[in-house]
# Entry
Amino acid sequence: MKTRQMNADWIVTARTLNEALPYLQRYAGATVVIKFGGNAMGDAAAMASFARDIVLMQQVGVHPVVVHGGGPMINELLGRLDIRSDFVRGKRVTDAATVEVVEMVLSGRVNKRIVQAIGGEGGRAVGLSGKDANMIVCEAADGGALGFVGEPCKIDPSLIRQLHAAGIIPVIAPIGAGREGETFNINGDTAAGAVAGALKADRLLLLTDVAGVKDAAGEVLTQLTPGEVRRMTDAGVIAGGMIPKTETALAALEAGVRAVVILDGRAPNACLLELFTEHGAGTLIRP
# Structure
């Protein structure tokens, strides 16, 4: 861990970007989708650090796409409005009143905070939701049993590519459009995986509140294959909240993403550690 942190500090504090370029250019031209969420979103210092990482990634030729969640902020506003939420297998049951709040928080408050943070670090970002330009079209998840919870069925990445060509970082709220004009709440990991698959991204980084996928002894595994993930899930080693993340990873790989990393978004410079250090960070899943 000390070696990783020293490497990350060197990347961030290099006196000139030219000092770091020979090492950083390994991902020049790559598309990297980052799912940002968890407790790091509510901390001003962590938000600024994340934004700084994203801007640096773009400066060295990476094409970043940020897809974010916002569960704690949604829960806060629902509580203030005295709107109760029920959950089924970890997914929020979303009625008409709840989806209005979800869209307000995700497309408004959370999305613009991230855009502003990136701008504060010298980057150019535009906030979007999956409804913009029909980027993410959804069907009701679980046959509609969860209300306005959507499962992406069609992704149009053309707007994202146009923004990259213009040097702009897309920041996407996981809100989708239904075929009949409905608004759907999408799980943030699911949305990020679908966007990454449509872009055939080089990397999907799932930032979470744990260090990565752990084995039966509780040790973080640095690398896994899809087959190993399935065997660990069947054996109950991968369980609870990690299952949706590994399922997202496997679906993204099947859709053409080169590799997925599950890593701790609370760690300083987590994205830079993964992309630009020899040892990386978290758990890399690839064929």
